[in-house]
Amino acid sequence: MGQKNQLWWDIPASESFLLNKKIYEIPEIQYKKTLDELIDLLSIKDKLNVQVRRLSLGERMKMEIIAALLHNPKIVFLDEPTIGLDVISQSKIRDFVKYYNEKYKTTFLLTSHYMHDIQALCKRVHVIHKGKSLYDGEFEDLVNRVNPKRKLIFEFSTTPPQKGIETLIEKYTFRINETILRAELPDQELTQLVSELFQLGTPATITLEDLPVEDTMRSFFTQPEKFL
């Protein structure tokens, strides 16, 4: 499900659900139980009898998900499920997919160019570029292989000693502006740097961030052979 609609636009989604019930020969008790659970999880009960064409994009996507899951499939294909949705709707769709996968062990195959979806939902990824399979494995491993760095912002409570900073410059790559030091380094180097920064002075704040996944994957697709 995703970019091709399985719901009839001129009738309410509830009537399309009944059609799916007949097609998949879903027993009445199972149908009602599954439908009630799905509309409750997706908070869409008040829209069941509204023409599909009158629903918002987010509401239509929720109805499409219900239609796809009514017969309790073992595998579900999701094609760009959050494209065009607002931030809140995107989050709700992701939360639902994650919950449903954990509860029912349903396998979701997600095709997407949207890194936030992949990062939030996928442990394993299969990367295809220009018709060729480039990678099949853990998403986190791929990210760490392409860009193993993290971002550090270390703010001293007072101006650090110049001699100490000069010593660190010989060992690490970073930028410092008066009391604020910024660095992008692999975890091991970052840990060592933080330890030595504590010896120079008391921090006012410390921030550690992962680098944007979009930037990492952009680097990968620009020169995939460099990382494989």
Descriptors:
ATP-binding, two-stranded parallel ribbon, Alpha-Beta Plaits, 4-stranded antiparallel β-sheet, ABC_transporter-like_ATP-bd, alpha+beta, Rossmann fold, 8 strands, 228 residues, elongated, ATP hydrolysis activity
Q: Rounded to an integer, what's the Rg over CA atoms?
A: 24 Å
How is the largest sheet built, in terms of strand order? 6-7-5-8
CATH architecture of the largest domain: 3-Layer(aba) Sandwich
**What characterizes the major β-sheet?**
4 strands, antiparallel
The class by helix and strand makeup works out as alpha+beta
GO molecular function: ATP binding; ATP hydrolysis activity
Organism: marine metagenome
Domain ABC transporter: 21-82
Protein name: ABC transporter domain-containing protein
Question: Could you please describe the fold and organization of this structure?
Answer:
With 228 residues, the chain is α+β, with helices and mostly antiparallel strands. Helix content is 45%, strand content 21%. It folds into 2 domains: 13-122, Rossmann fold (3-Layer(aba) Sandwich), CATH 3.40.50.300; 149-210, 2-Layer Sandwich (Alpha-Beta Plaits). The chain has 9 helices and 8 strands. The longest helix is centred in the middle third of the chain and has 18 residues, at 87-104. The mean pLDDT is 92. Keywords: ATP-binding, Nucleotide-binding, Transport. Residues 21-82 form the ABC transporter domain. Pfam families: ABC_tran (PF00005). One of its GO terms (molecular function) is ATP hydrolysis activity.
